[in-house]
Amino acid sequence: MTTQTTQTTQASQTAQTAQAAQAAQAAQTAQTAQAPGAPAHRHGPRLPWAKLAPEVYKAMIALDAAAKKGLEPALVELVKIRASQLNHCAFCIDMHIKDARKAGETEQRIYLLNAWEEATAFYSPKEQAALALTEAVTLLTEGFVPDAAYDRAAAHFGQAELAQLIALITTINAWNRFGVSTRMAPGQA
To answer: What is the reported pTM?
Structure first.
């Protein structure tokens, strides 16, 4: 190759690299231009999982109904909201706050739920035990539910009621995973 051909090829490659870099920068700018501090990904439904997997959806509805049997309705909603907060499921947070309000839950207890350990005067010892167990089962940070969290709940719930509580916590965690993975939008039940 001649020097002139080599220089032309290098110039062409440099121009292509610059164009690619500009395109990548433009794409990144477009993604971050949504709002200051907004994540780079688009939030919005990915797919209508309930329509695409109707048997699973029906089974989840049945599991949800069975899991809350025998538990106080206010406690059920507190557990569902708290697990949904931990899992960052906006759809479920929105739904269960609305359900809690309909069931007569106070705004103050709903607002303080994210910091319930600092606002123990607003929650009964039984509710606190249920919330501690909810956090332990939801997070499983150490790969297990600590004895202290389980024993605290067992002190306030009979065995059958404790089994129902664990089923409720497990069920809302499953719902949260459907909601988060498919990016279900709040207010669009």
So the answer is: 0.77
